[in-house]
Amino acid sequence: MAASAAAAYPPGRNIVIVGGVAGGMSCATRLRRLDETAHITVLEKGPYPSFANCGIPYALSGIISDESKLHVQTVPKLNSWFNLDVKVNHEVLSIDRAAKKIKYLSPATKEEEELPYDKLVLAQGADAFVPPIEGVGAKHVFKLTTIPDLQDIQAYIAERHVKKAAVIGAGFIGIEAAENLDLLGLDVTLYEFAPHVFPLIDGDLANVLHEEMKKNKMNLAMGAQVYKITPPDPEKGTHGMVYAKNAPDTEADLVIVAVGVRARTGLAKESGLEVGKTGMVVNDQMQTSDPDIYAVGDMVETEHVVTGARSQLALAGPANRQGRMAADHMCGKEVRYRGNVGTSVCKVFKQTAGLVGFSTRSLEKMGVPFEYVTVHPPDHAGYYPGSAPMTMKVAFSPADGKLLGAQLVGTRNVDKRIDVLATAMRAGMTIEDLEHLELAYSPPYGSAKDPVNMAGFAGGNLLRGDVEILHAADFAPAGREQLEDYFVVDVRSAEEFGRGHVKGALNLPIATLRETLDQVPKDKKVLVYCWVGYRGYLGYRVFKQLGYEVRNLDGGFKAVSEGGYEALVE
Q1: How far apart are CA 126 and CA 314, in angstroms?
Q2: Which CATH architecture does the domain made up of 14-125+262-330 adopt?
Q3: How far apart are CA 468 and CA 199, in angstroms?
Q4: Which fold has domain 141-259?
Q5: Pairing status of strand 91-96 against strand 101-105
Q6: Tell me: the pLDDT tens digits for 46-71?
């Protein structure tokens, strides 16, 4: 790999940046702030040098009413404010590393032209992946990653008076596209090959999102593999169709494919630069295998703080930081990219899903030892009007409590808590450290025991041996436990118990539990639970100190009933 320190730079050097948007433009503007004499040229393949691609789905429905708001910077502004030579609709064709020049196709002359460089930055981003589905190239099938994509879809809906649509892929873009088509009044079917939407999170939390989508009349086809798309025929009056394994055939006159992205590495490969499994190989200063060529954004592989593994991370925040840092290094500053924790958040109608680090399912697949706790605190003090519960799962190392991941789903202030947890992970904190965080409290905004603190209390109790727990997933068909092996005690009120409970449970309310212990045999393992876990924990402490072999059900009956574990409920 290239050396880690940048030499003093000469005045008037040529710096060429291939690609704009987040990584390229943050690099270009930072360079100008540090080096007034450099000749900085940005070549962007598309018509817009700097746009908010994350906002595109929200412009589809009109939530963002004016497309111009998506244009973060314009060519005239970049020229006048930063003295940049920005060339839009210019495709770079090749890199001559020995001669230190690039070739690009001029839209004016339709001929190849050359441009020398002292330093080159690749910020080409990623392409939407289009799977090999029969009919995927039809005119009514679109991607949704650029402003021209948005314009094409809007024009098609208006011209064809589309009423039925399908979205293939239920990640960030797919969920956002499906929701915004739904808000337009279209009948929408969302397809996902994985068992649930937002595959980065665990299925029990995703189940909450499923219910929210169904409440908004969206059709879900999970675990479905789309294999054929046919176009509508206006002359015959027939609808387009989507065919999938494990899902019914669906009418769809508009289809959006959003199954993920792939790093644009073709140019780099052709020039002999080192490319990894998912993107460009760079060092901690964003230099490629050629020290005079940098790469940033969605096209590179960077290190994950938790595992140390390098992979592509297609998020705007890291891309902006990487572009800025590459500029710093080119200007002689000692900098080091510190890796990612993978913080993300996604709106799903009135619900919000947040993730940092890894889900428990991902940790299990990677073979990383972990434990986790589930809590359901309100977003602010419960006695203050308008509080709303959230579900939070926090995973940590059973050896030292180091945080490995957190997932949240709720209607309010999910982003606030996921940001706190992301900061904690970046700082290398443990689950016990969360107990000691001093977070802003006033009844309209939080609680004296913030949800993040509550996760710390629950995890700290587990790590220190003050409680032993089992999860609803442990009793699922593929789980490690059998419900029949436990004497199940529900310590909620009789009224709560009557609204639904775990199969075979005996209702012994916590208020009178000590007087009714003779109903619980000591020669059988006990599983105790309540609605969210706290009363279950109180019951656990009673049973444990009186000599019972007992476990508390993590997250309580709420985790069972809302997590999709219908087989455990009666």
Answers
A1: 8
A2: 3-Layer(bba) Sandwich (3.50)
A3: 29
A4: FAD/NAD(P)-binding domain (3.50.50)
A5: antiparallel
A6: 999 988 889 999 999 999 998 889 98
Q: Which two tokens stand for residue 135?
A: 């009919």
Q: How far is CA 250 from CA 153, 160, 211, 224, in A?
A: 20, 18, 20, 12
> What does residue 61 show for φ and ψ, rounded to 5 degrees?
-90, -15
For residue 359, the number of C-alpha atoms closer than 13 Å in the C-beta half-sphere is: 18
Query: pLDDT (tens digit, 9 = 90+) per residue, 86-136?
Result: 999 999 999 999 999 999 999 989 999 999 999 999 999 999 999 999 999
Give the DSSP letter of residue 58: H
CATH number for 344-463: choose from 3.30.2350.10, 3.50.50.60, 3.40.50.2300, 2.60.120.200. Answer: 3.50.50.60
- Length in residues, the chain: 570
Burial of residue 384 (number of CB atoms within 10 Å: 0-12, 13-18, 19+): middle
- Global pTM reads 0.93
Q: What is d(CA 209, CA 243) in angstroms, rounded to the nearest whole number?
A: 24
pLDDT cut 70: percent of the chain above it: 99
pLDDT band (50, 70, 90) for residue 478: confident
**Answer CATH for 469-568 from 3.30.160.270, 3.90.800.10, 2.170.130.10, 3.40.250.10:** 3.40.250.10
Alpha carbon distance 181, 197 (integer Å):
17
How far is it, in rounded angstroms, from Cα 187 to Cα 567? 31
Cβ count near 486 (within 10 Å): 22
